[in-house]
Structures are given as C-alpha cells and as structure tokens.
Amino acid sequence: MRTVLVHNAAPARPLQPLIPQFSPRELGEPVLEIVSYDLRLDVDFAKARVNGKVGVTVKGAAKPFALDASQLSVNRVTVNGRPARFVFDEKRAKLKIPGVPARQSLVELEYSKQVSDDVIFGLYKSKYGKDYILATDLEPAEARTVFPCVDEPGYKAVFRLQVTTEDGLDVIGNTPWIRKEGAGGGRATFTFQETPRMSTYLLFFAIGRFEETKVTADGIDVLAATRPGQAQNCRVALEIAAESLSEYQRYFGIPYPLKKLHIVALPEYHTGAMENWGAISSRESYALITEHTSFTQKNRGAMSMVHEVAHQWFGDLVTMKWWDDLWLNESFATFMSYKMTGRLRPDWEMWGIFLRDEGFHALNLDALSTTHPVQGRVRNVAEAMHTFDAISYGKGACVLRMLEAYVGEEAFRKGVSDYLKRFSFSNASGKDLWDALGRASGLPVTKVAKEWLTKPGYPVVTVTARRGKIELSQSRFTLSGRKATGVWPIPISLRADGSERSAFLDSKNGNIEARAERELLLNLERTGFYATLYDGAGYGRLARNFSRIGPHDRAGIMYDLYLFLQAGLVKPELYASFVALCGANPDAMSTQIVTEQLMQLTAIADESHIIKGVEPEFYPPLLDAFGQEPRPGEPPYVGATREYLTSQYASVDESYARKMASLFEHFAALDSNLKAAAAIGYAITYGARAEKRLQEMAKTLQGEVDRANIYEGLCAFKEPELVEHTLELCMSGQVSRSDSGYPLFLSAYNPYARVALWNWITKRYDAMRDMYAGSQQFYLYMGRAIPMCGVEREAEVRRFLSGKRFKEGGSSVTRILELLHINARLRKRLLESRN
Ligand SMILES: [Zn+2]
In terms of C-beta distances under 8 Å and separation of at least 24 residues, what long-range contacts does 212-217 make, across chains too? Predict the structure, then answer.
C-alpha cells in the first residue's frame, strides 16, 4: 500500500550521465528532414553484441550534417553509396559527416555495440534467473545509444527494422513482422512492417523467449508477451488495455493507426511502463496482475496500461515538438487514464484515487518555495527531465481536469479530437491544444490555461459567511507560511444552505450573495486546484454536517486541513477532531487519505500524544466498518481500504500486529489485501526470529507484488539493526534490481528506524548513487527518505548535504531541506500539543 508513493515515481525517466546536455536543433532553418531509417541489426544474443547497419534517408541536410550517436563503434559511413569521412565526437555524442548534399541523400553507417551488463535502459538485458530479454527503453535520449539518428522528438521518420538473431528466439517490434527467414548457421531474420512516421524515442524491439496471449479489440490484435510461464498472469492488464483501445478510438474519433498492440512484460524494468508505439513495455508488477492481486496493485497496473494506451494517440500519433511539452504529454495521459479507467470500471472510484495519488500530492509540492511553473523554459533534455516532476504531472493533470469542468466534457473531447486530427503523424505544442479547446468551447481557454501553467504555486481561498454574503479572498498558499503574491482565474463551485452555485474569481476579493447559515462548502467534488480555509464558524458547520458530506469533498477537507496543519494555520487539535470524525463516518477515500497522513505524522512524530490519542478513535471503528476479512461482493476499493488500515494499524499497535502475525503462516493463500499487514505483523512480533524467513522470501518469491509485501515486513522491524540488514540486502546483488528501491522508501515510514536509516544513508550514499547511476530513482528515494528520517537532526542533514549537488527525480537539495524544515517544525508543534 505504501508503494502508492512509489507510483508517483513512475513518470521519472532515465538520465544518461554519459550523454552531455542536448539542445534542440533549430527547427526549420536550415530545413532538415529525416525521411526514413532502414535499420538492420545482427544480434549475437548470447554475447549481447550487435552489428548494425542503418540507412538514413535525409532531405535538405544541415551543414555540417551531424547525427546523434553515443556508446557505439562506428566503422564505416557512405553517402549515396560513396565512402565518406566522418568525425565521431563521443563527448558530445555527435557524429559529423561533412559533404552531405542538401538534396535527398542516403547516409549509410555500419557500427557495432556491446550491450553493457550494468545498464537498465537504452538497449539492456532485462534479467530473470540465468536468462534475459534484450529490450530497448529509449525515452528521452537513448535511441542514439542503439543507432545513429537525429534523436529529437520533432524529427519523425519511417522505420524499417530487420533483426537477425539465433533461431528459436522471438523478436517483438513496434509493428508485426512480415517475414521470418533462415539466415544460415542456426540464425533467423525477422523483417518488420514499416512504421508510420514517428519519433525515435518511440522505437522498440525486444529479443528473447516469450509466451504470448492474444485478444482482439475492434479487429486489432492486442497481445501480451511475457517470459515463459507467466502468460496466464497478464489477463487483467491485457483485457483493460484492449477495452481502452476500443474506447479511445471512439473518444478521439480516430482509428488506432497500427495493426497490433503489444504489452511486453519485462522482468527488470526501472520505471513503470513506456508507451512505445504499438509495443508498450512494462514492469512485471504492472502487467502481471490477476484477479487475486490486491486492488491497489491491480488498479495501478490497469491504470498504467490505460495511460500508455492513451499515449498511442496523445504522444505517439501527435508528439510534442520539444521536451518542454513533456509535462503536457504526461499530464494528459495521466488525466485520461483516470477518466477512461473510471468509465471502464465504474466501481473502482477512480476520481477518489485521482485525488489521493495526483491532486493532493501536487498540492503539497506546489506549496513549497522550491516549486516551479508547470510550463517553463527548457533548454535541453537533461533540464526537461529535471523539471518535469510530480508538480508538473500531477498539477498538469489537475489543471486539465479543471479545464474540462470549465469547458464541459463534450467540448473538451471535441477540442482534443480536433487537435489530434490536425497534427496526426506530426508534432504540436501546448498552445495548439489550448487553441483547439478554445475553438471547441468558445471560452478563453488559452488565457486561463496560461495563468495556471506559467505561474508557480496555487491559491488558498479564504471564505467567510456574513450577513447573507459569502466573502472570498485569494492569496498564494505556501507551506513555509511565507507571504507570497498571486491572483489566479478560479472557477469556484460551492454549496450554501442546500443550493449549488458557481462563480469565477479572478481578482483578489469577491462576494457572492447567498445565505450560508447551516451549510457552506467550496470546491465541490474537488475539481478546482486550490485549497479552502474556513473560519472557526465554517469548520463548526463542516463538523456538524460531516455525515452528509460526500467522500471526495470530505477527502478535500481533510487534505486542506493537513496542508494547513503543516503550515501552522490550524491547530493540531482541530485536525485531530476531524480525524476522529472520519473514524465515526466511514468512507473509503477519506479513510485512505487520512491513513496516509497518519502514516507520515507517525514517521516524523510517533511520540506525539495528539497522534497517539486519535489512533483509537480512527483505526478500530473503521476496521469494524470495513471488516477484518473480505466480504463477498464488496466493492474493490473496500479491500484496498482494508489494506491501508490493517497495514498501518499493525505498524502502530503491537497487539494488532500479533493478530496479523498469526495470518503470516498462510501467506501464499492469504487475501492479497491482507498480505502487507501480515508481513508487518510478523516482523514486529517476531523481530530477529522473523528476519531469515522474510529475507529468503524477498530473494525467492516469484511475483514482484508479493515481494513488495515482504519488504513492508522487512522495513517494519522495531529493531533498527534489522532494518539496516534490509537496506544492505538491496545493495547485495541478491535481490532483483526492480526491488532495490523498496527498502529505502519503506523504512522512511518506520519511526524506530529513523536514526538507523539516516546513519545508513550517510554511510552508503556514494555506493547507492553509483548503483543508480544514470537513473533518477536514487534522488527520488532520497527526496522521500531524508525529510522524514532526518527530522531530529536538521543541522546535521544540512551539513551532510551542503557539498552535494543534484536536481534529479523532482528532488533537489534545497527542496529536501525545505521539506525537512517543514517536518521538523511540525514535529515540534505536535510534541508540544497535549491531548
Ligand atoms: Zn506517460
């Protein structure tokens, strides 16, 4: 369940430290067009060695003509059949070829590449047991490490791929293969159908032993490819991918442009999934989900599929001109994945999950002084990767939801469809989309979008009801409490004494004539990206009406209170009184959100009387309400809520932990939503006696989802040295590389491990960083762990980080220190409050 936060890590894309920073070519001047790539790869699978030949058809070459290339040995270049001179500058990752005429030319290159054992992107070995799959993962700038190319999203081209490798292996590409011929010496050649025009980062191929399952969607083959023995486990992911494919065809009003769509489950994978056109690659825990998988995991896997299928149009068919619109690509797919999954699985409560996983997380980060506008200037690829973090994606998705509510669902759909039709097989920018939405709705979308996207932060709306008037006032909200300015155009919705109203607040203050004596609630269904601060009378009204307030609105109230608690705008007692109200008024979404909040508060101030005091009013009544055991026919999110409650309550209450420990004996057969709690209970109850068995399971269990539950246990020990063993385990090479982040991430929530985790980070910082070299994940984990485990030693953390420099994975040293300071201040306030 805690891996819900890992989910937010999913947008993080790899960084290639060996690649210098790239800037966009000047599009259009001089006119350079890549028509096609003829890519012939001769792959020695056993040695993981590639001999490649690529024919690049170029129109109107720039002078001097240069291709992007890195980590390749280029042996020979010809231009229009004649040998040509070339200069390969590995440091700049450029291959310069003088003398390419400015008409259509064919530039052919012969090269070789040795696939490194250490990388987990580009062309890499995705290992399982003693075997592996050779697979590509090329976003944003890794295509150049596989073949020389113009590796920018604006340079779309047609790809003709041919792969020769050992007979008996399968090869999967973006398109179906149209020919398989013997190539002599026990080898075979696969020739793939030519792709439509597409960007280099969307190219995909994988070579290995696969098992396939197939369904069809409106006549299109949708296939899941897994390593042998896993095909039966991909049914859930495959089905929702196929259903969403059909549904998107209708929603966008554009047929899916390829002949087939693959879901390729890769045993080692360093992010969530990737939208390669026609061949989505995915980590196994997202693709291998079954009816028995816990709802949280199932939901995450299914949504990830629906997200990547949305990209097949938004991202693949129409692609951003340059990486500065990466946020739009991701925000749109994120927003659509909730919308579409909600449509296909109405009982999954998708908008509640949207608030929990996207909206609230973005509100927290966007209230830091280290925030940034969603849309900013991006000079190069590395900068784009740094800038686009949970703020960009989460807030971006929230702004899209707010715009949809503003223009209406049908105008939104029409605008998106017009945009996609107009720029099919080509590139576009954010402005093109806003203009299309504006045309479809007749509203000033470009202007409103610009205000929300180019300004950092968001407003808090302060609301007071007085003498038949509702007075509203907006200012920028900051967690530090620092004064900040800013006025946003806010579509306001509210309910006062039973009647619903809407208004548009685009100045600092505004009034609405309405009586609100019994009831006043703003931001209905939480479609607006702003927080609402009520006065004392306002919170009194909300408390009295709490049982009648809907789940999304309750979740919103709890979230705003949590923000204000961190900022010191409300007293811990007020927050705790609303936690108790949630305990007395069970609903799934606010239960999950408050459980997450309590988890964070326990991590930084478990000794607080006010937090300890409210636990009995929250967990036991809700466990009674949602039940300790699955009930036949219950909605799926009830099971998920049980997972939240049982695992967190087992972490904070020893007698409950003992009860859960007794379930661990039957771990394999246990209901998936109870597995985390059983592992946590087992670890807490048996301590060192539980360690060996849990470690063994982390090493040997086949499913990543089950292993994630085991790590919950391994990080929950109350003996700090045992947590340290878990952290060491992830560095030992004995566990799958997909798992190595779990311990660092999960142990941050264990207050008993606070000191041990901090000491371990200081000791193993360099080794961890090296282990993750080239990926943002390390910084992302640091960004989570340090603000929590460093909460009692702010000065020491400051000293430790003072020489360190990073700005990856949405974390920077300044942001970590700011979060740490906010947590330390909150800890102090919580410890001072007596209940
Ligand atoms: Zn995406």
Answer: 213/238, 215/239, 215/242, 216/242, 217/242, 217/243, 217/245, 217/246
What span, in angstroms and rounded, lies between the C-alpha atoms of 817 and 812?
A: 9
Partners of 132 in the β-ladder: 127
**Ligand 1 center from residue 100 Cα (angstroms):** 36
Query: Which pLDDT score, from 0 to 100, does residue 26 have?
Result: 43
The reported pTM is 0.87
Alpha-carbon distance of 237 to 249, in angstroms, equals 18
User: What's the CA gap between 621 and 610, in Å, rounded?
Assistant: 18
Q: How far is the CA of 315 from the centre of ligand 1 (A)?
A: 8
**Residue 308 among the catalytic residues:** yes
Q: What is the pLDDT of residue 807?
A: 56
pLDDT band at 732 (very low <50, low <70, confident <90, very high): confident
Radius of gyration (Cα) for the chain, nearest Å? 27
- Rounded CA-CA distance 588/644 in Å is 10
Neighbours of ion ligand 1 (CB under 5 A): 330, 333
Tell me the mean pLDDT in the region 387-400: 85
Give the whole-angstrom CA distance, residue 829 versus residue 572. 8
Sheet architecture: strand order including 170-173 = 122-128, 131-137, 205-208, 170-173
| CB distance 32 to 62 below 8 Å | yes
User: In this structure, how many other beta carbons lie within 10 angstroms of the beta carbon of residue 528?
Assistant: 26
Cα(1) to ligand 1 centroid in Å equals: 22
CA distance 270 to 634: 34
Q: How many CB atoms lie within 10 A of CB 573?
A: 13
Of 537 and 23, the structure prediction assigns the larger pLDDT to 537
Contact, 699 vs 734, CB < 8 A?
yes
3-state secondary structure labels for all residues of 202-221: HCCEEEECCEEEEEEECCEE
- Residue tagged active-site, from 108, 139, 308, 724: 308
Element housing 499 (H / E): strand 499-505
Tokens of residue 274, six digits = 């990737």
